[in-house]
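Exam review. A common question shows you a sequence with its structure tokens and asks you to describe the fold in words. Practice with the pair below. Do the first one on your own.
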Amino acid sequence: MYINYKIKYRFDLTNGGGKNMRRKSLMRDKRGQVLGLPMYLIVIMIVAVAVIAAVIFMIPRGSQTMIAQVTANSVQSASGAVGEYSFPSFTVTVEIKTNDDRQDPIEGAVVRLSGGHGIGESNPTGSNGIATITVSGAKLDANVNEAYMKMTVKASGYEDFEDDDAVLLYRG
């Protein structure tokens, strides 16, 4: 005696109730495939991708942002200079704070200025978040009227901050 079930699997009720018939029928069933791959493999791949995405999401990053502003000597002038002009060493002061409502000063940030042939790097900031950088070697080439120095600020736990136009060197 055979009974056809709703899902169209045939069970034999005479010899043990057809315990093995269902499993054999599912193994031979070609409808459970997607692009020729077995359905269980597709499910495993989807779960693996979800797990990998969750692991990548949990990797810590510098999630806080900061702002840095040059508070003193952001413009250096070479008045009346003709041809190549080398600036004497000068000091730039930068204030570094968190980029949120409180704007707390950031301790331990390092500021670097580069460009216009000059370079300067600060010691780590103190509890007030202020860095003082002495820049040396800055100059304007002949026929160049202005140049900008790029400021890069790095602090542990924060995204790096960059300002391409932090300090202006120009002929006045």
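Now try the second one, then compare your answer with the model answer below.
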Amino acid sequence: MRFFIAAVLLLPMTTASVLGQEPRNESAKAQVCKNTGKFESSCNPFSKAAVAHAVDNTCAITGDATTDGDKAQDRLKNNLCANGSARAITMKELTALQNSVDATGVNYGNEHEGKGGGPPADRSTLFTKLPAGSAKEGDLVSFVGYIVEVQPGSSETVDCHCTETDAIDVHIAVADHLLDLQTAPANATKEQKHEITVKNDAQLCTNSLVVETIPHKRPAALEQQAIEPLRDKKIVKITGPLLFDASHKPCHGTTPGTGDPARVTVFEIHPVYDIAVCSQSAMTQCTADSNNWKSVLQK
């Protein structure tokens, strides 16, 4: 694991969208962030596991975004209505999708770091070169692999720049095989910490993608502290809609850009609807269509 002090967060997931079910209530502190109104969604993929959070009443579906591009992307980041049968997707396919977006020449990426144009208002311009028959943004997909890193998200437009743990995303790095990420010892020097970060980033840049649980209706089983015990131990299946995070860019070789996560693609599963755990320990027994899965949302 990379060296960071993890804040306590949790995550929930499920494969199908269930309409009209309201989450149970949970007392929560008032959020210190911009109030843009109630989060409105007729869908609840978490069924009875859903939990109401204070941010559901104060942060609308487009967060506090001000540009058309951010509004369009934040709406997708909060999409709880993808349905149908999930399509299994691999790291190889995700890398090919990333290459097809880059081939368009569209200027996307972190505009705050002076390296990109941010999310475009017309997102269709990103996908003009997708391979025929490939998965598309918004499709319900599943990825099978290992959770290799779990950490709280940051203050973002999608979460109305809230900072409390029950009002922000949980960021999860997943890979199709186990990685050897290291944690810096408490007495590590600045140079030693940097060396460990560089080595960890090199692995994440070539072997991982990010999936995220969102705070809205998030079940306890999808909070950070509930997901953490699965890290590096269990084969999991992550299910949710496919999203292209045009606020960032993938790594350049083994190095992430300033302000960008270390990952091979900026295609994500976001929001995560479900995390299922395989009862077996071999990947060959944990194919996406096997019967060896149990959702963390099931008691």
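Model answer, second protein: Confidence is low (pLDDT under 50) at residues 1-31. Helices lie at 68-77, 91-102, 190-207, 224-227. Full marks require stating both points clearly.
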